[in-house]
Amino acid sequence: MKVKIEKRQNETKINPRLHGQFIEFLGNAINDGIWVGKESKIPNINGMRLDVINALKEIEPPIIRWPGGVFADHYNWQDGVGEKRKKVFNEGFGTYSVETNEFGTDEFLEFASLIHSEPWINVNLLTGSAREMTEWMEYINRKQSTYLSKKRKDSGHEKPYDVNYWGIGNEVWGGGGMMTPEQYVADYRKYATAAPTFALNQFSEDSRYFILSGADANKPKERRYWTKSVMKELARARPPKVDGYDLHWYNWYLGNEFSASATDFNANDWYQVIKGATELEDILKEQYDLIQDGLDQLPEPEGEFDQKLEKMDLILGEWGNWYGRAFFEEKALYQQNTMRDAITTAIVLDILHSNADKVKMASMAQTINVLNALILTNGEQFVLTPVYDIFKMYKVHRNNDVLDVTITDENSDHVKFFASINDKTIYLNVINFDLTETISVDIDLPGLVLQYQKEELAANDMHETNTFEDPNHLRAAIVEQRNNVSANELFDISIKPMSVSVFKIVLG
Ligand code: AHR
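The line above is the sequence of non-reducing end alpha-L-arabinofuranosidase; the predicted structure tokens follow.
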């Protein structure tokens, strides 16, 4: 197989925020997954697990979304601040337990800062109110002395947190209210208008980033209808401030009567799930085009102070593999992640990278103990899944320019390439998801090679994963490194089956 790597005509930079994460009060994502309490035997920083903090600090998720998901629409932020926390009951996705609210706003924002992440807060549009939202914004971001900024100070945080990203509603077409697009845009207008002036004023440096709840990307007819209708509604009156459109997409694999398993599967299941991941690309392109069409239809500004909504970023606020059996787990939506999930994670991230001109931010569902998890915990036990290794290997692409990779001879449906460049260093990803075939690739590069390195995550069996008992069974490793190599001797590489490789190629 021969591939050619070239500069892309239209410069496309990879926004680091495509590597974001999502945590929710759901199953053990937060309780046990992050929060163990200050008195716990498990080493912690102010009640948050040290093992999890250290692991996430290494991948530095550029963005982290919280408190949900569906839970956001049942969350009252006041329950989770100050000395006395209110206990509530959490039914979301079968969590079925008492939520103590010990991990509240201040704890989340401390956690985000410990892992070098920017917070994205989703407000409660369903059971909350515009007042609750504005007061939350005041508590978090108000500079001037008010009773809410004083309350923040009393909780130990004098300086405003300066949270930029605010989601208004979650999956409003479903669990977030079963709304019509018309109802939702009306509510959105109200909330966006009610937000404190420091957040709303687009001319001010204190302006904040407002995110509209987007379509259910899994349903072709509905998602087209939703996006078109939302854009139409925005055009009906002067549009309020809106910066992003939050699409949700899951790679569902449910099986007969929700029997599909994350660990017990055959070759057919392997290929089906991987095919599912590849379908995301067309969805993103379609949704991007619909948003652009909608923006073109917006009325021209009339008054002096009228602003035209020029752009609205496409965001993928929830994504990941979701197997049928996750619905029946004792810990809600708990899933093991195998090499199959590492491969689909690599495919999705490469789709996001290649479409970085269209998608500006994404957050994977969810970081710990839920669905496409990077980390699994159980009391003192802790393990990094192979999905974690993909995020770690792929960190090198952040802020790079996207390159074009073309296959110039016989193609294989089971191999995927992606490349980016930072100054003179090319990073090339090769995913071979064939179950048996080693692939030999000839790479045609634009120049001489000074340095070369291959990092690889490869399985011998499709079910391979890491467990609490065998935590380092499937780990990425640098398997080759060379200096002062010439193009000829190097660029015939062989790629193992069931593997993801990242090549670092320093050009002369
Ligand atoms: O990530 C799990 C759930 O999936 C989220 O709470 C919800 O937004 C989505 O349906």
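Note on the example: Residues 374 and 388 are 5 Å apart (CA to CA). The mean pLDDT is 94.
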